[in-house]
Write a structure and sequence with these properties.
about 30% strand, alpha+beta, about 120 residues, globular, 3 helices, single chain, binds zinc ion
């Protein structure tokens, strides 16, 4: 797999626009197509700190025993690589729903800071 983030974004765009439920990247089967369309629409950047993804990694899905993999995007903060995560704008603790309109991208550090609070960025 190319490690150029611009190439990966282009590749994802092609895959998301097609109707495949899973995709094969670098020999690994990757699922959760919907997740990647959210990343595409949000420009692969943290809504809070504004940092953009600088690379992607193929990682094993630990919650899933079916052998699927995830494409995980990382932003760079100082000398750290920080995972880009999907956050519930209205937290689940405040009865926020699992709906696309309630999702935003936050890096793991901003997400941890936000916690279960409702903060509009
Ligand atoms: Zn952030």
């Amino acid at each position: 797999m190319t490690n150029k983030i611009t190439d990966i974004k282009k590749l994802l765009k092609t895959i998301v626009l097609s109707n495949q439920k899973t995709m094969i990247i670098d020999g690994h089967r990757i699922k959760n197509k919907e997740k990647y369309s959210l990343f595409l629409r949000n420009g692969f950047k943290c809504k809070c700190c504004g940092n953009k993804a600088v690379f992607a990694a193929i990682e094993k899905d630990e919650n899933c025993k079916n052998g699927f993999f995830h494409l995980v995007f990382y932003v760079r903060k100082g000398n750290r690589d920080v995972k880009l995560t999907i956050d519930h704008i209205i937290p689940k603790a405040l009865k926020g729903e699992n709906r696309e309109e309630n999702y935003q991208l936050l890096c793991e550090e901003c997400n941890r800071h936000k916690g279960d609070k409702l903060i509009i960025f």
